[in-house]
Automatic annotation (TrEMBL):
GO terms for biological process: lipid metabolic process. Belongs to the cytochrome P450 family. Its cofactor is heme. It comes from Oryzias latipes. The gene is CYP27C1. It is found in: Membrane. Keywords: Heme, Iron, Membrane, Metal-binding, Monooxygenase, Oxidoreductase. Pfam families: p450 (PF00067). This is Cytochrome P450, family 27, subfamily C, polypeptide 1. Its main location: membrane. Heme binds at residue 487. PROSITE patterns: CYTOCHROME_P450. One of its GO terms (cellular component) is membrane. One of its GO terms (molecular function) is all-trans retinal 3,4-desaturase activity.
Length: 542
């Protein structure tokens, strides 16, 4: 017992790496009763969630419980995965495959991709267990190709690609600056100026069409809005994305970004193709490097410019004022290389994610005119007609927040997320050894009827809290992740989304254009529209 207690005290971390699986299972079984429920922070039975249902304890604390191993776990064979992904274009249907596999194999299943084994978790309670058990520096995925590029060019890592202590240090700097709504509320005015330009751009684009209302492929427009918005915060300057003539440097950057995403499969292969094959198949790696070169170059130009402006101001004895970048440059909490890497990776993470969410949200509004009217009513009643909203106003507009949450529930930009577990773990009755790659199936849990009654319906009001005791932390839908490694840009994204949507709904009635056929989601790295979404923006009377 003393032995067990000392293990329990040291947590699961101390399970010796050199032990056989059976030895580790033995100790975990013994720990099961005494400590595992604490170590894994299993949610208490009866914990209430937003949908009013209970999180069931998924690891029954029962003496007779036998832990199963990965060998016992169901899942598709390597052959069927190969057919699914390479023959049936599974890369663009990863979200659908999640649903199919959940139905066929249950809440937890394994898949093999060549030598790589992935354990998929497709259940709200199990996802909660995994994320609540995370250590101080969780690892998302294997970032070898990102790391190789950075080593080759002598570049630092940003938050997305960093691990361990490096990541922890940078995360603790950024967390204090942008993780709370009130931290980002100071960017309201800057974002609102970008929203002004978005509204003007809608008017310019629709005026070019014969009906004076249609904007074709709204994602192009929202991509430019998201890039301009996030750059106004990260670089503290405007890029001119929403102007008629987009400046050449900005166009070059957009080209690099598109190369990174449009050749998603190619860049994925860049990581998957062994190094010795590169002389024979050089293109994926070359494209991967050249798009990173473009992204870094663009960030460096803007960071250096701000650095030189600050230096000049200091030399003139002027007070230096500014936002996030100014803070990082002045306090030197990060090295200049770390600043380059972080703004580069944040810009990369912050553009498509936000623009796809805006495309889906406006598409949903157009398809549900009654809901659009309810939201318009809430905005008008709360703000008065035509008032430009600020970040503070958003807390008074639960339906706008519900609109964003519901959009991200139905279309989680990251349909799945990854973790490489750093300690042996027991989840769903299985022993999963340290180092295993987990896939958290957010798309599938978001569409689970048990988690969200009427799961396929668009119901922003389901997120409106009835009173303060109404819990909203539903692990069924966590589009920004959860915990210490969750999205650091969440508050920035929400600010951009809320302010843009309020203004668009205030000014326009958004309708589906007759030339739009039903648009479904496809996976292209992120969950994105499979066809252009064309919408009509009709002036409202008020
Ligand atoms: C709708 C918009 C967005 C969504 C849905 C989203 C979602 C996510 C998700 C799911 C993760 C992984 C979390 C995890 O592993 O637990 C993530 C990570 C991250 N996101 Fe976002 N994101 C959005 C916008 C942004 C924006 C605007 C920025 C930057 C300004 C940003 C910067 C990042 C960074 C740097 C990380 C890595 C954090 C880390 O590893 O510490 N994201 N995001």
């Amino acid at each position: 017992m003393a032995l067990l207690n000392s293990f329990a005290a040291a947590g699961l971390k101390n399970l010796q790496a050199g032990w056989t699986i059976n030895q580790r299972i033995f100790v975990l079984r013994a720990l099961h009763k005494s400590a595992a429920s604490e170590a894994l922070e299993i949610p208490a039975t009866g914990e209430e969630t937003m949908s009013g249902r209970l999180i069931e304890p998924t690891m029954p604390v029962d003496e007779k419980t036998e832990l199963k191993t990965l060998n016992d776990m169901p899942g598709p064979s390597t052959l069927s995965n190969l057919v699914e992904f390479f023959w049936r274009d599974g890369f663009s249907r990863i979200h659908e495959i999640q649903l199919e596999h959940r139905k066929k194999y249950g809440k937890i299943f394994k898949s093999r991709f060549g030598p790589q084994l992935v354990v998929s978790i497709a259940d709200r309670g199990l996802v909660a267990e995994v994320l609540r058990a995370e250590g101080v520096a969780p690892q998302r995925a294997n970032m070898e190709s990102w790391q190789e590029y950075r080593d080759m060019r002598g570049r630092s890592n940003g938050l997305i690609s960093a691990e361990g202590e490096d990541w922890l240090n940078m995360r603790s700097v950024l967390r204090q600056l942008i993780m709370r709504p009130k931290d980002v509320a100071v960017f309201s005015d800057d974002v609102n100026k970008v929203v002004d330009d978005l509204v003007k751009r809608v008017c310019t684009l629709r005026a070019q069409e014969s009906d004076g209302a249609t904007v074709f492929n709204v994602n192009d427009l929202f991509f430019k809005y998201a890039m301009e918005g996030v750059a106004s915060i990260l670089y503290e300057c405007r890029l001119g994305c929403l102007e008629n003539n987009v400046p050449q440097k900005t166009q070059d950057y957009i080209g690099a970004l598109n190369l990174m995403f449009s050749s998603f499969k190619t860049t994925m292969y860049a990581g998957a193709i062994p190094k010795w094959l590169r002389p024979i198949i050089p293109k994926p790696w070359e494209e991967f490097c050249s798009s990173w070169d473009g992204l870094f170059k663009f960030s460096m130009i803007h960071v250096d410019k701000r650095f030189n402006d600050i230096k000049a101001q200091l030399e003139r004895g002027e007070e230096v004022k500014g936002g996030l970048l100014t803070h990082l440059l002045v306090t030197k909490e990060m090295s200049i290389e770390e600043i380059y890497a972080n703004v580069t990776e944040m810009l990369l993470a912050g553009v498509d994610t936000t623009s796809f969410t805006l495309s889906w949200a406006t598409y949903m509004l157009a398809q549900h005119p009654d809901i659009q009217e309810q939201i318009h009513g809430e905005i008008t009643r709360t703000l008065g007609p035509g008032t430009v909203p600020t970040a503070e106003d958003v807390s008074q507009l639960p339906l706008i927040r519900g609109l964003v949450k519901e959009t991200l529930r139905l279309f989680p930009v990251l349909p799945g997320n990854g973790r490489i577990i750093q300690d042996d773990l027991v989840v769903g009755g299985y022993f999963i050894p340290k180092g295993t790659q987990l896939a958290l199936c957010h798309y599938s849990t978001s569409l689970e009827e048990e988690n969200f009654p009427g799961a396929l319906e668009f119901q922003p009001q389901r997120w409106v809290r009835k009173d303060a005791s109404d819990r909203v932390d539903n692990f069924g839908s966590i589009p920004f992740g959860y915990g210490i490694r969750s999205c650091v840009g969440r508050r920035i994204a929400e600010l951009e989304l809320h302010l843009a949507l309020i203004r668009l709904i205030q000014k326009f009635r958004i309708e589906v254009s007759p030339v739009t056929t039903e648009v479904k989601a496809k996976t292209h790295g992120l969950l994105c529209p499979s066809a252009p979404i064309n919408l009509r923006f009709v002036d409202r009377e008020n």
